[in-house]
């Protein structure tokens, strides 16, 4: 499957000016998105895709979140629905130690909720959680 480029950031709950959510639009740059303050338990971002696109797999790079959930929706309105149920990226011990925070995971069709997989969407909502750090 071809890679889908992200068009724009629709909304973001929190971002550090040095690591804004717009960094997600250029994944090859290696830049990341981070919360405005250390210790935030949950942050989210809504991203726009260039038109309605089917999603068959996800390639997620993570920096410091213990959990990541991906939801999909349509810009015309309506609710978001879960595409990738909350996935663990860091254990409690890894989170508290603060070492090796970069993680990369690939989620194929079998990891995605079938009701949303393969359908066409133009919005992604990423929810990143870190309940283990202060």
Short précis:
4% of the residues lie in helices and 45% in strands. It has 134 residues and is mainly β. It holds the Pfam family XRCC1_N.
Notes on the protein architecture:
- With 134 residues, the chain is mainly beta.
- The protein has one domain (8-129): Galactose-binding domain-like (Jelly Rolls, Sandwich).
- The chain contains one helix and seven strands, in the order βββββαββ.
- It has one helix at residues 92-97; strands spanning 8-12, 42-54, 58-63, 67-74, 77-88, 102-107, 120-129.
- The strands form two sheets. The protein has a five-stranded antiparallel sheet with strand order 1-2-7-4-5, with no helix packed on it.
- Strand 4 and strand 5 (77-88) form a beta hairpin.
- The protein is globular and about 40 Å long.
- It starts with 7 loop residues before the first strand and ends in a 5-residue tail after the last strand.
């Amino acid at each position: 499957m071809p890679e889908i480029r992200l068009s724009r950031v629709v909304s973001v709950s929190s971002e550090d000016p040095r690591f804004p959510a717009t960094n997600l639009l250029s994944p090859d740059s290696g830049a990341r998105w981070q919360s405005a303050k250390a210790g935030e338990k949950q942050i989210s971002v809504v991203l726009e895709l260039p038109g309605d696109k089917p999603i068959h797999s996800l390639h997620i790079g993570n920096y410091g979140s213990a959990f990541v959930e991906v939801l999909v929706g349509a810009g015309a309105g309506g609710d978001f629905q879960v595409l990738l149920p909350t996935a663990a990226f860091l254990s409690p011990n890894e989170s508290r130690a603060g070492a090796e925070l970069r993680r990369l995971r690939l989620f194929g069709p079998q990891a995605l909720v079938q009701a949303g997989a393969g359908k066409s969407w133009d919005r992604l909502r990423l929810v990143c959680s870190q309940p283990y750090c202060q």
